[in-house]
Design a protein that fits this description.
By secondary structure, this protein is mainly α. It contains 6 helices and 3 strands, in the order H-E-E-H-E-H-H-H-H.
Length: 145
């Protein structure tokens, strides 16, 4: 492998892919290259070149967990149960489901000092755990620093 990718860079790509409805982060199993793929109309020539490589090198590129692989509602429930006390726990659990879930959840957390930051950290660690499990299952090396 050319350079062993940093977990931080891998996580940045996964987070970036989550911003797109159809976004996917991929990593090349031999080179450690990371690519974020999103289907949109304005594709630059470099992205097009990498997409062609991905198709040509089938099996070498591994998809990292996307927004459909990561059950954020479950993570929200776990956070509410582990980091809050009643009645806030119940209020948080009541926000989960339907349109506006994430906004309602974050707005409620913002009412209590430090809780929103704790949520962001908790969510990031849960996503990181999922990504690390995928990298390890695919035998793809990474470094933490």
């Amino acid at each position: 492998m050319k350079d062993v990718p940093r977990l931080e860079d891998i996580m940045d790509a996964v987070e970036q892919a989550h911003f797109f409805e159809d976004g996917h982060a991929l990593i090349h199993r031999r080179t450690g290259e990371i690519f974020v793929r999103a289907d949109y109309d304005d594709i630059d020539p470099e992205d097009l070149r990498i997409r062609e490589r991905i198709e040509a090198e089938e099996g070498e590129w591994v998809g990292l967990p996307d927004r459909f692989d990561f059950d954020e509602y479950r993570v929200m429930r776990r956070f509410a149960g582990d980091h809050t006390e009643s009645p806030l726990t119940e209020r948080l659990l009541d926000t989960i489901g339907g349109r506006g879930t994430f906004r309602r959840f974050k707005n409620l957390l913002a009412e209590k000092k430090g809780l929103l930051d704790a949520w962001y950290e908790f969510r990031l660690r849960a996503l990181e755990k999922k990504v690390v499990a995928e990298l390890e299952a695919e035998d793809i090396p990474f470094r933490r620093a």
